[in-house]
Amino acid sequence: MTNKLFEGGSMPGVGPIHIDEINPTLDVLEKHLGIDLKNNVLGSVGKKEFSGDIDVAIQVDADKIPELVKKIEACPLIMDIAKSSVIMTKVKIEGYDASKQTTKPRTGYVQVDFMPGDPEWMKTYYHSPSDKESKYKGVFRNLMIATIAAIRDSRASGETIDDGRSAEVERWIWSPTEGLVRIKRVPAQRKDGKGYTKKNIDTPIQKPIKNPDQIAKALGLDGAKDLNSFESLLAAVEKNLPADEVEKIKTSFAKNGSVKDIGVPSELMQKESLADKQMNRILQLSGYNRYEV
To answer: Cα–Cα distance between 229 and 142 in angstroms, integer?
Structure first.
């Protein structure tokens, strides 16, 4: 067994796990470690036929993490271990069925990441809808919540600094560790006191919200069910929020670099208006190509 320091990434020699193999593999791990794993899996684990890895939330105090690492290292089921912000391990798949294959090579081993933190909050933040509930990965759901948070009930002071930023903004931020947080944001001053840097200083102004229903209410939505997927969030936004905010949210989301890299959802692609359709039809019948140079 190797014991390396990683900054994230994949363990060597691991591959996807079939949905039928997840519980048997976690059952054996639970028995050896004495830790509840199945009730604390994160993301899309168990929601689709194959999972690339298994992420598990572990409730552990920061000063107890070294002890947890030693406990995991001592487990005979752990073939390899590496630690970064999470504890990454290589685990033999229990009841491995080599006949069940997917697009990525299967090896008989799967990566299990033990993620220290608050399991209930992590299950909310890392929630991923099933394939039947959404066409998109969980990252789109989180990016959409972050976009709504940035725009919903954002209040900027009338005063601006030289680069155009507001001197003060009160808004929501979507934090992976703290929850939905209401903050006051101001530009960071230069050390010499002459102007500002490009950084901002965020100061929480009320207690963070981690309850899903309360998060939804704070964002102007109906309830926790609206946070399930990109599609449910979009539908809730269009139903509940003012038209100008809806357009800002859609535009901001579509311009996000991560979204553009993955692919802008078809629901946000600009649709041809009825007037444009009629004009294009008239031009087509007249034999005129409006786009000719």
So the answer is: 8
The pLDDT of residue 10 is: 85
Taking CB atoms within 8 Å and a gap of at least 24, the contacts of 1-7 are 1/73, 1/78, 1/79, 1/80, 1/81, 2/80, 2/81, 2/82, 3/73, 3/81, 3/82, 3/83, 4/82, 4/83, 5/82, 5/83, 5/84, 6/82, 6/83, 6/84, 6/88, 7/84
> What is the residue whose two structure tokens read 């685990």?
91
- Cβ atoms of 222 and 240 within 8 Å: the answer is yes
Q: Which of 237, 54, 60, 77 is nearest to 145 (CA)?
A: 237
C-alpha to C-alpha distance for 202 and 272, rounded to whole angstroms: 41
**Residue 115 belongs to domain with CATH number:** 3.30.460.10
- Together in a domain, 204 and 239: yes
Predicted model pTM: 0.83
212: containing domain: 138-263
Burial of 4 (0-12, 13-18, 19+ CB in 10 A): exposed
What values do phi and psi take at 232, rounded to 5?
A: -70, -35
Measure Cα distances from 49 to 19, 22, 36, 155, 284 in Å: 5, 10, 23, 44, 47
Query: Residue ranges of the alpha helices (H) in 152-223?
Result: 212-218
Residue 248 and residue 162 share a domain: yes
Tens of pLDDT, residues 42-59: 999 999 999 999 999 999
